[in-house]
TrEMBL record:
The keyword Cell membrane applies. Coiled coil: none annotated. It comes from Mycoplasma testudineum. PANTHER family: ABC TRANSPORTER PERMEASE PROTEIN, INNER MEMBRANE ABC TRANSPORTER PERMEASE PROTEIN YCJO. This is Multiple sugar transport system permease protein.
Amino acid sequence: MVILLNKILVKFRISFSKNWNPFLFLIPALIIVIIFIILPWFFSLLESITISNPLNVTQTSIGIDHFNAVANSELFLSSFKSSNILFFIVVPIAMIISTAIAFLINSFTKRIVRNFIVTTFFSQFFISIYAIGISFIFLFNVDKNVLNNILGTDVKWLNDSVGNTSIYALSIFLIWRLVSFNVVFIYFALQKIEPMQFKIASLDNISFIKKIQIIYIPNLSKVMKTLVYLNLLEAIFLFPLTLFSGISPLEDVNINNASTIANYIYFMIRIQEFGQAGAATLISISYIVGLFLLYFFTTYSIHKLHKFYKFKKYERVFNA
């Protein structure tokens, strides 16, 4: 009996160690997630619901005053509007431009030309975002006025406190950042498509629209989904201070209607309004998670509907 029990324990320990060994490699990632995501979210929640008594700093209560202050803040609403412009307008434009450029590069017959262009796009990953920001300041800033001199215009790209010109400059900056990133991934996804698929399509004399349906969409769908997530994250964390210079750059961004959600949270921390910063963080995270879930379920539903109608089509052909 003792020998049998020892065998069972030894077998259990071996099985346990084999099953848990792969999870040990996830420990560094879990530590990073806990430190940089879970703990900040928890501290933001505490700050957002903690109300301090101005007459007695040691006396606190729980409430939603910070959420009300954020919801009624014109600066937050302006930042929220700017971020939504980047989400729903600028990111799709960047995806369309990136796809067109990737297809254009893929159409070149000489491999050395394709490699040179892709390397040129990829080289931007080694350039600091602040270095690129300085270049854009040189182009758009009212003091340098390089772009206006080239175009012969007089547009206040980064100094428009009345109109929306500053958000246009910020959108161009984001498109510049996203296109170079997207082109590389889409191009390599195109390179992975089997040449035999194109040969079969040419033999069947299939139109370009049909090629998109049966060749490009199945092969590029996963890459496109990943790029949408990454592009949205880039838009979320876009920090407009890289484009604006001045004595008080935070105020410049806010006055010029180019503040984003990330900039608003940083601004609240800068002026030590930690409760409003925490409330804005929770509102932003909830909104972003909602967008991701909406996108996931939408694409999942479209995929299921496509498979359903495809099955019905084959069923009708078989029954005929």
